[in-house]
Amino acid sequence: MDNAFNSPAQVLDANMKAGVGKAKLPLLKCILLGLMAGAFIAFGGASSNAAVHNIANQGLSKTLAGCIFPVGLMMIVFVGGELFTGDCLMIAGVVDKKFGVLAMIRTLVVVFFSNMAGAVLIATFVYFSGLLDYTDGALGAFTIKIAYGKATITPFKAVCSGILCNILVCMAVLMATAAKDIAGKVWAIFFPICAFVIGGWEHCVANMFYIPAGLLASMNEHYVARTEELYGITADQISANLTVGGFASNLLPVTIGNMIGGMVFVALPLYAIHRSKIVNKTK
Length: 283
Fold this sequence. Notes:
Elements: H1 8-23, H2 27-52, H3 58-68, H4 71-79, H5 84-87, H6 91-95, H7 101-129, H8 134-151, H9 155-178, H10 182-199, H11 204-217, H12 221-231, H13 235-241, H14 244-282
Helix pairs in contact: 1-9, 1-14, 2-3, 2-4, 2-7, 2-11, 3-10, 4-10, 7-11, 8-11, 8-12, 9-10, 9-14, 11-14
């Protein structure tokens, strides 16, 4: 029974060893893996938006989105990719002196901007693919509404929401490491990511898709008119708030919250709890 899955100490040890590999990644590989991860998360966002855009019941809408969005992290875990939020777990390897803080910062910075490039690329393709025309432009309007809501969230709420989000994302990453077969990894990823989507919490990489997609949609007059018709958000409100500056005002506090959630609330407590078992194992 003990061999059915990896123990928490084994999971943390495996994650720290993976962090060593991340810290040593050549720049080009790190960029490519970051691009892939950003694109995969964007696919989860685009698909879940398409599924729920015309569902009025918020609970049902979020639940269905939560069932679809996890595909992004599944693709990253099974095929490969470097995701900024998951890489926040590298702090445990720094504390354990497996690699230096500068190596972690270098990885996080490269992955962050690579994730952004991948997510924005998919947002651009989604816009020009015509997907947002669904339901006479209602999907375009929904995309604007989602982006508008994120661009107007207060910084304090964004930080708190980012913390809650990345606790669950990092738990999904670690739980996938605990599982030893692909079915176990699927379910290990599914439930925490589903919970974060239902909670509506803020994920910086997902927002690298959602807000640029909304910015692009806001250039379409039909989508803007449908946004006012369906949600009461006027063109003036959209143009004033859904901007590159609005994108940045969301991304900065959400990223800070994600880092706190992954590092302070997951990686460091788990390291403090399981360090003695890991040290004794390596002696």
